[in-house]
Amino acid sequence: MLITLVFLFHGAEDASAKVLLTKGKALELAFPKADEVEKRHVFLTERQAESIRKMAKAEVNSRLYTFYVAKSGGKETGYAVIDTHTLRTLTETVMFVINPDGTLRHAEILAFFEPTDYMPSGKWINLFPRKTKLDKMKVGKGIPNITGATISARSFSTTTRRVLAVYRVMFGVPADS
Q1: Going by DSSP bridges, is the β-strand pair 104-112/18-19 parallel, antiparallel, or unpaired?
Q2: What sign has the CA pseudo-torsion 67, 157, 161, 70?
Q3: What global pTM score does this model have?
């Protein structure tokens, strides 16, 4: 009874700020069969950042990205990027898992500090891996909007396109392969 009352008095603020999955656990789940996961930092040149901006149709907020490269039998089998960005006033952290061919394998929200009403559902997020072209990953083009969570939807879409474009430029995968 006391716990229920405390929750009612504190409202949605406390319910919204949460870490859903740690980086370590997320990487374990993303690459369960990997022999190793190597951390690789990439620094974008101005020319690369401009190429990414054009490819993703999104601003490049950082020129430093960290990729987690999964290896099995000496072969690179997948890549992950963890991106933290501001939505309205608070942040969201998303892990993007990328196939060697530059397509999105999986995306997972690791932390979400806005009210949970604004958090995209797993079903909505799972629309992205089915898309191969970056322009089909835009809200209103190939991805439906989320009623009442437009900022979250647009931010997730923009970040997905940007991260995939960074991968494609830095690892030499043709655009919209």
Answers
A1: antiparallel
A2: positive
A3: 0.86
